[in-house]
Amino acid sequence: MTDRAYALFEEQQRARGIDVELVKQRLKSFTIETPSWGYGDSGTRFKTFQKVGVPRNPFEKLEDAAEVHRLTGVCPSVAIHIPWDKVDDYEQLKRHAEQLGLRIGAVNPNLFQEDEYMLGSVCNADPAIRRKAVDHLLECVTIARQTGSRELSLWIADGTNYPGQADFRKRKGWLLESLAEVYRAMPAEMRMLIEYKFFEPAFYHTDLADWGMAFNLAQKLGPQAQVLVDTGHHPPGTNVEHLVAYLIDEQKLGGFHFNSRKYADDDLIVGAINPYELFLIFFQIISASADQNPQVRTTVEKIAYMIDQSHNIEPKIPAMIRSVLNIQTQYAKALLINLEEVRAAQDAQDVLAAEDAVRKAFEMDVGPLLTVIREEMGLPHDPMKAFAESAYASKILARGKGGASW
Ligand code: PSV
Ligand code: MN
Ligand code: MN
With contact defined as beta carbons under 8 Å apart, do 309 and 38 qualify? Predict the structure, then answer.
């Protein structure tokens, strides 16, 4: 059945002028980083439900991530969060990752869980608190060196709750000053990925509220600083694919944190709510990967595709596998867009033909393609089912309840 379905798929795509071999190659080399915190217990501000089998320490989190990689074949790196993943010996953590066939990905500092940060961290009016925050960021640069990580991923929770509470412009200056010190401490091969979010935990203003502010900051810091787009961090109705294209064109798109967004930053399974948005983001990326400007092409090659999710009611490992599969599905569909057809319609200013050239790829069934790719990569056809039936799924039950939580 799969063979027949795939043969038909390949025939249809070739007839449309799609280079199927190239599509397959691109899908096989497309990797997604999973977050250590997505394997631990997590919750909402109302309750954290404890699950059986949750990893008890950073080493076990890596083991769960290795299981996701074993079943999907495309998740070779894991982002860590400090101090959630604090260990005595980071070289040992690195070796543990390597023994599992993984590497440590982005290092995420935590500037939001200490009492001192209640009124801000790097934007706090108190210089001693800013010093503490910068020292933590510098510690994360060291941890990145020790673990072989090439990315420092920054989300700053700073903001205010009431008008007049603090001076916006002073805080803007402290932010730049703090990050400039950290930037200078980074080795040449390290990137600083700067995230933004328009609200939460602060509700009146956030110091790094949107992609324009992150872009401006990254410009001022230098070429090793880029913007990180977390798909959950925009006000309703934001055209995320547009800002993605803009940032790529400016060579300032560093990476993504994928998750879904319904009402706010839900950190739930990517693609569960708005798969078309995800597809349109990939359309922009794929289109820019064929750009005439080599610097734009290099920017696209270096994009870090990361998941940023905390699953609070669903089992963690299958939720992560589902997320990876959802991303792969939308990427596969976007690879089926005939870019020449889109360009021709744009040149002719044929609005309906252009929209059709994009949408019809979204409507295609990429199931047979993904099945064949998994077969060629020696992976299970259905990673969700394979996990449910795996010895690993039963083995982790022995961990009991009360695992690590963020
Ligand atoms: C909080 O909004 C957040 O979800 C940010 O997206 C960070 O990337 C993540 O937590 C981890 O600190
Ligand atoms: Mn994020
Ligand atoms: Mn978030």
Answer: yes
Using one digit for the tens of pLDDT, what is the confidence trace for 108-154?
Answer: 999 999 999 999 999 999 999 999 999 999 999 999 999 999 999 99
How remote is the CA of residue 308 from the centroid of ligand 1, in Å?
A: 7
Regarding the beta carbon of 197 and ligand 1, being less than 6 Å apart is answered yes
Structural domain containing residue 134: 31-337
pTM of the model: 0.98
Q: What percent of the chain has pLDDT over 70?
A: 100
CB atoms closer than 10 angstroms to residue 397: 9
Question: Which pLDDT score, from 0 to 100, does residue 45 have?
Answer: 87
Tell me whether residue 21 is in a domain: no
Regarding the beta carbon of 85 and ligand 1, being less than 6 Å apart is answered no
Burial category of 66 from C-beta neighbours within 10 Å (exposed 0-12, middle 13-18, buried 19 and up): buried
CA-nearest residue for atom 12, ligand 1, is 155
pLDDT lower than 50: segments of the chain = none
Tell me if 261 CB under 6 Å of ligand 1.
Answer: no
Task: Say which residues have a Cβ less than 8 Å from residue 124's Cβ, sequence separation at least 6.
Answer: 116, 117, 130, 133, 158, 174
What separation in Å is there between the alpha carbon of 265 and the centre of ligand 3? 5
234, 236, 263, 109: which is closest to 244 by C-alpha?
A: 234
- ipTM of the complex as predicted: 0.98
Using the mean position of ligand 2's atoms as its centre, give its distance from the Cα of residue 129 in Å: 23
C-alpha 170 – ligand 3 centre gap (Å) = 25
Which atom of ligand 1 sits closest to the CA of residue 200? Answer: 2
CB atoms within 10 A of CB 298: 11
270 domain-assigned: yes
- d(CA 151, CA 226) in angstroms, rounded, equals 10
Task: Residue 290: give its domain's CATH number.
Answer: 3.20.20.150
**For ligand 1, atom 7, which residue shows the shortest CA distance?**
155
Answer yes or no: is the C-beta of 230 below 6 A from any ligand 1 atom: yes
155 lines ligand 1 (CB under 6 A): yes
**pLDDT of res. 389:** 97
Cα 356 from Cα 338, distance rounded (Å): 11
Is residue 46 included in any domain, yes or no?
A: yes
Q: Is 10's C-beta closer than 6 angstroms to any atom of ligand 1? A: no
Residue 392 lies in a domain: no
Total domains in the fold of the chain? 1
